[in-house]
Amino acid sequence: MELSQLQPDMERLNRGAMKLGVGLNPGQIEQFSIYYQELVDWNKRVNLTAITDYEEVQIKHFLDSLTVILALKPPPADFHLIDVGSGAGLPGIPLKILRPEIKLVLLEATAKKAAFLGHLKQRLGLDNVTIVVGRAEEVAHLGEYRERFEVVLSRAVAPLPTLIELTLPFCTIGGSFIAQKKGDVDREIERATKAISTLGGNLREVKRIDLEEFSDQRQLIIIDKISVTPHQYPRRPGVPAKRPLVSNEAVH
Ligand code: SAM
Fold it and tell me: How far is the CA of 13 from the centre of ligand 1 (A)?
């Protein structure tokens, strides 16, 4: 047998996951392999991702999603998690593969992307995954979803002031919103101060991701939900992006 045939699948992902303290078992590696194949296949018809290279997907999509685990320590036993603007399932699905006990909701505004998520759920044999097609501005006003999630995630959806309005309404008091951000985040956080306090949040921590797998600077912004979100938030679809709740002192 050639050496290359002995290489396990998803090797770069598995090596990175071990550095996060979470090695993957063969069943999980198989699920990530299926995820990769389905992503690339559906991407021919639905615009899901610009990243399709096998090595790159392992790091930039799958491992990047798993870094959220660093903000979940010690992880609650089974918790409700919503991924707002999930797109191709990132970061929600990689976390669900890692921690099957999570009760996961994937919220996505685009029906075609949501159809991919439904297909993927079935292909991966995932239980306790609900796919919701809709906009956060509307879904966050439904009793079934408002202030129901111990953990709220969102990757690559909007700048922080807008994102806070789209995500914190979903979060239970005592729960947290974890934003994945690249580059220098100080300015973005400064601009989001007003949104964080208005929506009932409190900035707990900015956690740097120190993994050589990532060439750029990545961090997790962890915001705790400490009080009820006023009922008028989020505002109508599009308003949080058009007129973000930006702190006065950060306008210029
Ligand atoms: N989170 C995924 C990732 O990191 O690869 C997808 C990122 S993609 C750039 C942003 C996604 O958020 C799109 O699929 C878009 O349809 C969705 N989205 C944007 N605004 C939204 C909103 N207000 N409510 C729900 N989904 C939204």
Answer: 24
Handedness of CA 116, 119, 123, 126 (dihedral sign): positive
Q: Which atom of ligand 1 is nearest to the CA of 135?
A: 24
Amino acid found at 26: P
CATH number for the domain including 61? 3.40.50.150
State in Å: Cα 46 to ligand 1 middle. 14
In angstroms, rounded to a whole number, what is the distance separating the alpha carbons of residues 218 and 63?
12
Ligand 1: residue whose CA is nearest its atom 6: 87
Q: Relative to the CA of 113, which ligand 1 atom is closest?
A: 14
CA 179 – ligand 1 centroid, Å:
13
- C-alpha 15/C-alpha 11 separation (Å) is 6
User: Is the shortest distance between the CB of 181 and ligand 1 below 6 Å?
Assistant: no
* Mean pLDDT split into 10-residue runs, the chain, 252 residues: 53 96 95 97 97 96 97 81 98 97 97 98 98 98 97 96 98 97 92 97 96 93 98 98 85 50
Residue whose Cα lies nearest atom 11 of ligand 1: it is 85
Q: What is the pLDDT of residue 4?
A: 42
Give the model's pLDDT for residue 248: 74
Q: Residue 251's pLDDT is what?
A: 52
**Ligand 1 centre distance from Cα of residue 25 (Å):** 30
Count of domains for the chain: 1
- d(CA 31, CA 9) in angstroms, rounded, equals 11
What domain range includes position 133? 3-250
Beta pairing partners, 171:
149
Task: Decide: helix, strand or coil at residue 137.
Answer: helix
Two tokens, residue 145: 């979803």
DSSP letter, residue 57: I
